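Meet today's protein:

…
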Amino acid sequence: MAKKRNSFAVLGLGAFGSTVALELARFGNRVIGIDLDERRVAQVSPQLHSGIILNGTDEMALREAGIDQYDVALVAIGREVEASILTVMNLKMLGVSAIWAKASSRTHHRILSKLGADRVILPEQEMGRHIAQMLNNPVVQDYVSLGNGYSVVNIVLPEALAGRAISDLGIGGKYDLRLLGLMRGTQFHDTGGGDAPPLEKDDKLIVLGKRPELRRFGDGL
């Protein structure tokens, strides 16, 4: 069965909004980009389903553009707090199914949440935590926080462990972690069947666990 294509309206085509819009389009989704700046719209619209020069604070203009017909709206207006707030309010009144919004501060975040935005993002803070996690533990190439202290991390194996068995790493024994799989180049290896290959330099382990335990594991490699 083919993957269902979703539709997205991205309001605000600065660096953040345009990146999200283009990536969503690259995944095969139907995306409309909206901004007051004609130049920004012209830069991205050839790669999107459509682009419109429009003011998100104008409820009638949003209605005429059919924004209420999109599955998700992302308000990527960060610095112009008043415009961001009014745009979210208009989208709520139009009955848009799901609204995500970018905030520029914690106060902005609280206001958007109170207005009923389904998800409010502080990109700089979220990216800052992401970078700090990787700087804190250099073997961690990437990670995803799952909440409640749990994360899934992508750990690059040091050369010294080449040729060793996965069972030698102590995952599930010495370390209270769960190994989800192993990436070797572009190939995924399921490690749950007991026939995992010997480790090689630059293998990437996909590991689930709590952050302190993940750090202890990384320090022990």
User: Anything to note?
Assistant: Residues 17 and 50 are 15 Å apart (CA to CA).
